[in-house]
Specification:
Layout (H helix, E strand, L loop, with lengths): L2 H8 L4 H33 L4 H49 L3 H4 L4 H43 L1 H25 L2 H21 L1 H6 L3 H26 L2 H25 L5 H42 L19 E8 L10 E8 L4 E6 L5 H6 L9 E6 L2 E2 L5 H7 E4 L8 E2 H5 L8 H10 L3 H4 L9 E2 L8 H13 L5 E5 L7 H12 L5 E5 L11 E6 L2 E6 L1 H7 L1 H16 L2
Parallel strand pairs: 3-10, 3-11, 6-9, 9-10
Antiparallel strand pairs: 1-2, 1-4, 4-5, 7-8, 11-12
Length: 577
C-alpha cells in the first residue's frame, strides 16, 4: 500500500479535524486577500480625494478583516493540534500493537534501535509536517490564485510580470526538493545507529566500566555523531537555500514592478493605490511560493518517515486460522519431518528432518553442542517461529490451527536470560495469572524454591525490583521466572537452560517440586547431562538434526555424541576435584 494511503487510513477517525482546519485556513486567507483591495481604495479614493468617510469605513473594514483572520487562524491552530496529536497517538498505538503480534521472524527484520526511532522520531516528524505544513499547504494555493486574480483585475499589464517569475520560482523549488529528498532517509538511518550505540552502551554499562572501555565507546559514538552531523549539514545546506533564493526573486520582482509601475503612473495608466495593492499581492504571492517550498521539504522528510512507519504496520504476520481451536485435551507433541530456516532465501536449514513425539506428562531433555538448534526447536512449539516445512502438531491438531493466545497460554517458556520488569515481585509473578491469589502464588513459589530467599528480601513479595531485576541475583531471577511460568497452569513447560544459575541442590529441589504437578509435560534444554539424565527420554541434536533419542543408559550405549559430552563433562568435574 502507498505510504500516503496508509497514513490516510490510519487517520480516518480524525478526518473532521483536518477538514475544519483547512476550512478555517481558507477563510483566514480570504480575509487577508481582501485587505490589499481595501488599502488600495483608502489611498486612491480616501487619501487622494481627501474623503475621510472612505478612509474610516475602509479602515474599519481592514481592522475587521484582520480580526476575523486572527480568529479563524486560532480556530485552525486548535483543530490542527488535535489532528496532529491524535494522528501521533494512533500511529504509535498501531505500531506498538503490531510489534506485540510479531513473531521472532518479524523481529529479526528490525533492529531494536530502529523500532524505537520509528515509534518516536519518525512519528514526531510526521506530526511536525502536519502541524507546520497543513496551514501553508492550504493557504499557499488560495493566496497564489486569489493574489494573481486580484492583481490581474487591478492592472492586467503589470500583473504579467508574475507569469514570468512564477515558473522560475517553481523550477528553483523542484531543484531543491530533488536534492534534499534522498538525504532524509539517510538522516533517519543515522539516528537508528545513534540509538543503537546509546542503547547498547547503557545495557552494557557495567561491562564498559569493568573493562575500562569508556574512551573506546566515546570514540565510537563520536564517529557516528559526526556522520549524522555531516548528513544533516548536507541536507540543510540545500533545504535552507530556498529562503535566500526566493527573497532574491521577490526583491527583483518588486524593483521591476516599481520601475514599470512608475512609468504607468506618469502616463496616467495606473493609480498609486493600485501599485501599492499590487506590491502587497507581490508579497502574498511570493510568500505563498516560500510556504509551498517549505511544505514540499516537510513532505519530503515526512514521506521518508511514513515509509519507515509503514514498514512496521505492513510487516506480514503469521497466518491465523479462520476458526481457531481453543481447547487442548491432549498435549502430545509430534514433529513430523519438520524443517526450519530463519530466512526463506537461506541456503541451509537450521533444523532438518525433525521427527519426534513427546507424550503428555513426560520429561524430555534436549542436549547438544552450542549452535545445534536446541532453542530454535522448542521455539517452534508456541509459534515464536513458524516451521518452514513439515508439520508440528499438539494433540493431533496443527499448531497453526490453534488460537495463538490460547496456545501460548498452554505452552510456558522459561529462558536462560529471563527478564523481570520494574515493579514489585508480586507484579512480576502475576504476569503468569493477573488474578492469582496469594495461596496459589505461595504454592508455585514453593515449587520453584522462591520461598528460600523471599524471607531475606526487605518486603517479601512486595519488594520493588529495579529495571530488569537488577537487585536480585541470576539464580533468584531464574526461580522467579519459573514461578511466573507455573502460574499460567501450562500443559507444556519448556526450560531453556533456565536453571544454569542455580546450584545443583536447588536444581534437584525444583525438579522434585515440578514432579508433583500432574499432567505437566516438561521439555528441558540443558548444557549439563546431570540436568537431563533423569528424563524419560533425551533428544541429542547435532548440527540441526536429531542424532539419537533414548534414556541416559541407552544413549551411553549407542550415542557417540552423547557419550563424548558425558566424558568431557566428567573429565571437567574430575579435574576440578
Amino acid at each position: 500500500m502507498d505510504p500516503l494511503k496508509q497514513l490516510v487510513k490510519e487517520s480516518k477517525t480524525m478526518h473532521k479535524y483536518f477538514v475544519l482546519a483547512i476550512l478555517f485556513v481558507g477563510i483566514e486567507t480570504l480575509f487577508e486577500v481582501i485587505i490589499p483591495v481595501l488599502m488600495s481604495g483608502i489611498i486612491d479614493d480616501g487619501i487622494m480625494n481627501k474623503d475621510m468617510h472612505v478612509f474610516i469605513t475602509r479602515g474599519i473594514g481592514m481592522i475587521v478583516c484582520a480580526g476575523l483572520s486572527l480568529l479563524t487562524g486560532m480556530m485552525y491552530a486548535r483543530y490542527a493540534a488535535k489532528a496532529s496529536t491524535k494522528l501521533g497517538q494512533i500511529l504509535r498505538d498501531k505500531q506498538f500493537e503490531r510489534i506485540q503480534k510479531f513473531t521472532f521472524t518479524n523481529l529479526d527484520h528490525f533492529e531494536t534501535s530502529g523500532v524505537i526511532t520509528r515509534l518516536t522520531s519518525d512519528v514526531t516528524v510526521v506530526q511536525n509536517a502536519l502541524t507546520s505544513g497543513l496551514r501553508p499547504l492550504a493557504r499557499a494555493p488560495i493566496m497564489l490564485i486569489l493574489g494573481l486574480f486580484m492583481s490581474f483585475l487591478m492592472n492586467a499589464k503589470l500583473s504579467l510580470i508574475f507569469f514570468i517569475i512564477c515558473p522560475i520560482l517553481a523550477l528553483i523549488m523542484l531543484w531543491i526538493v530533488k536534492k534534499v529528498a534522498p538525504q532524509y532517509p539517510l538522516m533517519q538511518q543515522a539516528l537508528d545507529h545513534i540509538n543503537s550505540i546509546v542503547q547498547e552502551n547503557l545495557i552494557a554499562i557495567r561491562t564498559v566500566k569493568a573493562f575500562v572501555r569508556k574512551d573506546h565507546e566515546i570514540e565510537q559514538f563520536d564517529q557516528i555523531n559526526k556522520e549524522v552531523a555531516s548528513i544533516t549539514q548536507k541536507t540543510f545546506h540545500y533545504a535552507l537555500f530556498n529562503t535566500p533564493a526566493f527573497q532574491l526573486c521577490m526583491y527583483a520582482t518588486i524593483v521591476v514592478l516599481m520601475l514599470v509601475g512608475s512609468q504607468l503612473i506618469l502616463s496616467n495608466q495606473l493609480e498609486v493605490g493600485q501599485l501599492t495593492g499590487i506590491l502587497s499581492y507581490v508579497l502574498q504571492i511570493l510568500n505563498s511560493f516560500v510556504m509551498l517550498s517549505n511544505v514540499f521539504l516537510l513532505m519530503t522528510r515526512s514521506m521518508a518517515s511514513i515509509e519507515r512507519v509503514e514498514q512496521i504496520l505492513m510487516e506480514p504476520l503469521h497466518s491465523e486460522a479462520k476458526d481457531p481451536v481453543k481447547n487442548m485435551d491432549d498435549s502430545t507433541i509430534v514433529f513430523n519431518q519438520v524443517n526450519f530456516k530463519y530466512a526463506s532465501d537461506a541456503k541451509k536449514n537450521v533444523l532438518s528432518d525433525i521427527n519426534l513425539t513427546i507424550a503428555p506428562g513426560t520429561k524430555v531433555g534436549i542436549l547438544g553442542q552450542t549452535g545445534s538448534g536446541k532453542s530454535t526447536l522448542v521455539s517452534l512449539i508456541p509459534r515464536l517461529y513458524d516451521v518452514t516445512s513439515g508439520e508440528l502438531m499438539i494433540g493431533n491438531i496443527n499448531v497453526n490451527d490453534y488460537d495463538l493466545n490460547f496456545l501460548r497460554d498452554k505452552v510456558a517458556m522459561v529462558l536462560q536470560n529471563n527478564v523481570l520488569f520494574s515493579g514489585t515481585i508480586l507484579d512480576n509473578l502475576r504476569w503468569g495469572d493477573p488474578n492469582a491469589g496469594l495461596e496459589k502464588i505461595n504454592h508455585v513459589c514453593e515449587i520453584a524454591c522462591v520461598n528460600e530467599f523471599m524471607d531475606r528480601l526487605p518486603q517479601g513479595l512486595y519488594t520493588e525490583l529495579g529495571q530488569g531485576g537488577v537487585n536480585v541475583s541470576g539464580g533468584q531471577k531464574q526461580r522467579l521466572c519459573i514461578a511466573r511460568a507455573l502460574l499460567k497452569n501450562p500443559k507444556i513447560l519448556i526450560f531453556d537452560d533456565s536453571t544454569s544459575a542455580v546450584d545443583t541442590k536447588t536444581d534437584a529441589k525444583i525438579r522434585e517440586g515440578l514432579a508433583s504437578v500432574k499432567g505437566l509435560t516438561q521439555i528441558i534444554i540443558a548444557q549439563r547431562i546431570q540436568s537431563v539424565e533423569h528424563c524419560d527420554q533425551i533428544v541429542v541434536l547435532d548440527d540441526g538434526k536429531i542424532e539419537s533419542i533414548g534414556t541416559h543408559s541407552e544413549l551411553m550405549a549407542h550415542s557417540k555424541v552423547y557419550k563424548e559430552i558425558f566424558e568431557t563433562q566428567k573429565k571437567g568435574e574430575d579435574h576440578n576435584g
